[in-house]
Amino acid sequence: MSIPGEPPRGVRVMGILNVTPDSFSDGGRFLEPQTAIEHGRELIAEGADIVDVGGESTRPGAREVSAREELARVRPVIEGLMAERDESGAVISVDTSKASVAAAALRAGASFINDVTALRGDAQMVGVVADSGAQCCLMHMLGDPRTMQRDPRYEDVVSEVKSFLEERLAFAVREGVREQQVLLDPGIGFGKTVAHNLALLARLDELVSIGRPIVVGTSRKSFLARLTTRPSEPHERLAGTLATSVLAFERGASVLRVHDVAPAREALEVAAATLGGRWTASSPPKTPTS
Ligand code: HH2
Which residues are catalytic? Predict the structure, then answer.
């Protein structure tokens, strides 16, 4: 909640670009590099502050891919987006847990590493982050994508996720990463029941109190379909995505990771104005006329 007299808080939209055959909501749609580049440009035109390019799905039960295959998917897309990037200043992120993929993506122009294993998946990753100075998102996940949704249990999901994120932040800093490089993410849907996801969203302020920007990704996830009377396919979950994104922003989230950038951005601009703040991300909002 914005308190009168407090400086307005910035919020950024991270657009999702999955260059995979098997992502849960858009698998196979952007596997061809030129199609993916065009979609990335659309996300930037719609107001994405960050474009998150991923070459391996993390959905429950997803097949692991080799570093070579993952890089072959993401590198041409990152290069294409960098070559055609306009003055929007959008940042290119790589969604990977592999140090070699991250390092090559940084060389191709990415400046943000989104690691869903929070530097646990590849021992070399922390060095890549420290040496490059890139922004890095550390996400909570219970188990791994193959096992994470098998009866996940916590005593208190919020305090356990908070301790985990604090520990990963401390580890990164010990290994030479600057605290300012790090963003944290509760990992909605990664080893969590519907109730766990809702508790994390409702008590997001407890994670915000760690003091690093919080990333939240609810976009099209299956728990949204479990909360509504109408059954829905992933691409039909925009309303639930916007509701949870706005609530997460109100509770202090700094980056919302979404598939549908234009509506998310619009919802967040309105939410920011309603809460008495203003849009402070990289590109300015339209001037209000009425
Ligand atoms: N969710 C997904 C993937 N990466 N990264 C962060 N930081 N936070 C998230 O919530 C998150 C993430 C899953 O969504 P998606 O990329 O659409 O699907 P898939 O993993 O099947 O490609």
Answer: 221, 257
Contact 9, 250 (CB under 8 A): no
Measured from the CA of 23, which atom of ligand 1 is nearest? Answer: 21
Which residue range(s) make up the domain with 191?
12-275
Mean of pLDDT over the chain: 91
**Confidence class for position 1, pLDDT limits 50, 70, 90:** very low
Residue at 229 is within a domain = yes
Residue 219 lies in a domain: yes
91-95, strands of its sheet edge to edge: 182-185, 135-139, 112-115, 91-95, 50-54, 12-18, 255-258, 215-216
160 CA from centroid of ligand 1 (Å): 21
Lowest mean pLDDT among 25-39, 78-92, 167-181, 275-289: 275-289
At residue 86 the predicted structure's pLDDT band, cuts being 50, 70 and 90, is: low
